Amino acid sequence: MQVTSEISNITVIFRPERFNLLRDALKGHGILGMTVIHVEGCGLQGGKVEYYRGSELQIDLLPKTKVEIIAPSDKVEPIIETIQKVLKTGEVGDGKIFVYDVQTVVRIRNGSRGLEALSTKDGE
Fold first, then answer.
1. In this predicted model, what pLDDT tens digit does every residue of 71-91 receive, in sequence order?
2. In degrees to the nearest 10, what's the CA dihedral of 68, 70, 75, 76?
């Protein structure tokens, strides 16, 4: 993968029931901060049929979890490998990983920028 920035945004959309496994695995990479969003979506998995009071309902949008992680670009590949290892069931619907370059990061509290803003060390 070609990286043009020193900071990357890794966005993962996956099955909600695998969130705790992913969170625990990411701690091993020193990833303690993330944004977690509960979403609905569709893809190759399609929908599913459910029955409510005897009536058939086609559910086209399935619940998913979206996690966004900001990390140094040199850690992206090991993080992706861990995500794949943890989330892969071999079934359609396991999810997707998207990686984007981040122009900059600014810590609001003290104005630090770039990799320093991602640091868990508190310089104050």
1. 999 999 999 999 999 999 999
2. 40
Distance CA 49, CA 41 (A): 15
Euclidean distance between CA atoms 41 and 73, whole angstroms? 28
What is the C-alpha separation between 8 and 3, in angstroms, rounded?
8
pTM summary value: 0.82
Tens digit of each residue's pLDDT (9 = 90 or more) over 51-67: 778 777 767 788 999 99
As a whole number of angstroms, the distance between CA 56 and CA 50 comes to 6
| DSSP letter for each residue of 58-76 | EE-SEEEEEEEEEEEGGGH
Q: Are 17 and 82 in contact (CB under 8 A)?
A: no
Q: In what order do the strands lie in the sheet with 7-14?
A: 35-41, 62-72, 7-14, 95-101
Residue 10 neighbours by CB under 8 Å, 6+ apart: 68, 69, 70, 71, 76, 79, 80, 83, 97, 98, 99
CA-only gyration radius of the chain, Å: 18
